[in-house]
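Progress note, sequence design subtask.
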């Protein structure tokens, strides 16, 4: 029996939880006001923002005053990175990032390079981990900022954040630490004080919240140069209007995600492990990209399927109403080899044959079974047309 559309691209965006939709509806229909003083409608909006800040703050060990809502994770990254670099440029002009980081970080690094900053790009090993020794060696007296991605957006590698903290703190001067937690928030424990981060970006729609809202954690006492100028409606970092309904929906999504965090993440791990096990059982010549086990985010499975193109598999799965990603959803346009996989030492063929499956709490094992069966059929069909695969069979 056909299940219906199976969605396994949850790293890009996720289904909005029904409870979130219900929470937002009253703010769209009834309490649609902006914050203000002296009048009840404005004060009510103020209360909702404060309440939402508190919920988000508690999920990461922060203070409510350190949470700033933005229109998404990308803007939060821009506010933090450009803001930190420009606020502390009198102390130095050197920034460290890695070649496997999220495009937000890399494009900001390139922008800052063009504007007088020096950037060191750390390499990664064959599982996507950055080298702590290389990080240590890259630090110099002019270093003011290190930024990284908590969970790699392509292969799910969890960077060694506690060890990174120790390296940064071993320097003889303050190095500011920005963390892009878009793929990590709600999937792995992230306590801002334990990690020693100064800024951290998160996004609502990765955890079954609404699209179009995110947040930036900004440690008390850390300075940012203003990026966006205009009238303050909701927040002083992103001036102008922000939807109170989306903020309320974000807070509800956080409440649900962290109400039983260990149970929720254990289910994601169970599903992704089951998916990998089934694929390895049913499909020959398949290779996991990134680490196996607990060093990988619980929702992410990235594999290379030899002898065929990931783009072809993606389109054929879509025809069967199964949504997955090929390579990186943020870097696969134009059918280019994925930069993360290439940095990990994969070949062009392995990169082009890569598939990324990211699960959510709304996925089921029945959906996994149907997906693997469809993938097996598609792989068999495409390999029947592959000269390389047919040559391999003849050799046997």
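Output:
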């Amino acid at each position: 029996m056909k299940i219906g559309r199976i969605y396994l691209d949850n790293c890009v965006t996720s289904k909005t939880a029904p409870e979130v939709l219900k929470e937002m509806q009253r703010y769209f229909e009834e309490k649609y006001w902006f914050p203000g003083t002296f009048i009840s409608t404005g004060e009510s909006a103020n209360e909702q923002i404060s309440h939402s800040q508190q919920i988000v703050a508690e999920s990461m060990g922060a203070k409510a005053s350190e949470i700033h809502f933005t229109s998404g994770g990308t803007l939060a990254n821009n506010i933090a990175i450009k803001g930190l670099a420009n606020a502390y440029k009198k102390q130095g002009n050197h920034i460290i990032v890695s070649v496997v980081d999220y495009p937000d970080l890399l494009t900001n690094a390139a922008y800052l390079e063009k504007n007088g900053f020096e950037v060191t790009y750390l390499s990664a090993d064959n599982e996507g981990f950055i080298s702590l020794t290389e990080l240590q060696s890259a630090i110099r007296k002019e270093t003011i900022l290190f930024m990284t991605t908590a969970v790699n957006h392509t292969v799910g590698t969890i960077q060694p954040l506690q060890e990174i903290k120790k390296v940064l703190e071993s320097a003889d001067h303050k190095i500011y630490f920005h963390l892009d937690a878009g793929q990590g928030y709600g999937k792995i424990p992230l306590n801002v004080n334990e990690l020693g981060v100064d800024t951290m970006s998160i996004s609502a729609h990765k955890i079954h919240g609404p699209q179009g809202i995110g947040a930036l954690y900004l440690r008390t006492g850390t300075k940012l140069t203003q990026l966006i100028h205009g009238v303050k409606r909701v927040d002083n970092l992103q001036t102008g209007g922000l939807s109170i309904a989306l903020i309320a929906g974000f807070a509800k999504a956080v409440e649900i995600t962290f109400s039983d965090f260990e149970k929720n993440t254990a289910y994601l791990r169970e599903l992704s492990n089951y998916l990998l096990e089934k694929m390895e059982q049913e499909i020959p010549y398949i290779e996991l990209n990134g680490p196996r086990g607990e060093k990988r985010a619980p929702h992410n499975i990235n594999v290379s399927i030899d002898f065929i193109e990931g783009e072809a598999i993606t389109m054929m799965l879509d025809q069967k109403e199964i949504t997955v990603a090929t390579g990186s959803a943020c870097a696969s346009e134009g059918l280019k080899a994925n930069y993360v996989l290439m940095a990990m030492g994969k070949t062009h063929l392995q990169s082009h044959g890569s598939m990324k499956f990211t699960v959510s709490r709304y996925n089921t094992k029945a959906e996994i079974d149907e997906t693997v069966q469809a993938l097996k059929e598609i792989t068999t069909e495409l390999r029947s047309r592959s000269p390389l695969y047919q040559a391999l069979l003849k050799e046997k």
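The radius of gyration is 22 Å. Work on this subtask will continue into the next period as scheduled.
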